[in-house]
Amino acid sequence: VQLQASGGGLVQAGGSLKLSCAASGRTVSSDAAGWFRQAPGKEREFVAGITEYGGATYVDSVKGRFTISRDNAKNTVYLQMNSLKPEDTAVYYCHVFSNGLDYWGQGTLVTVSS
């Protein structure tokens, strides 16, 4: 499975961005997927996850602002980010857990200016 993340960029505080993670190689519709992020000088942290049935979980700091979703027809997972804050600045990585293995995208940089 190859994962291609896109959609990052520079946005002002309060703005929105939508990240996409396109999978190739095989379908990931039966796999759990998610987004992680890593800010400068910090460890990578979980942001949001979605099950194969569409159930979603979020880290407390993004609840009510971020929404994870998936389009199985497009083999793609999304992260809609609203009301962005400077502390959301990080490289965002998509992740798929499939058949006991972890797959990671290359990361996309999100920078939120104050």
Short characterization:
The protein has strands at residues 2-6, 9-12, 17-24, 32-38, 45-50, 56-58, 66-71, 76-81, 90-98, 101-104, 108-113.
Q: Estimate the strand proportion.
A: over 45%
Radius of gyration over C-alpha positions, nearest whole angstrom: 13 Å
- Alpha carbon gap, first and last residue: 37 Å
Principal-axes geometry comes out as: globular
- Overall structural class, as computed from helix and strand content, comes to mainly beta
Task: Estimate the mean pLDDT confidence.
Answer: 96
The low-pLDDT segments are none
What sequence of helices (H) and strands (E) makes up the elements? EEEEEEEEEEE
Percent helix: under 10%
**Main beta sheet strand tally, sense and closure:** 7 strands, mixed
Number of helices: 0
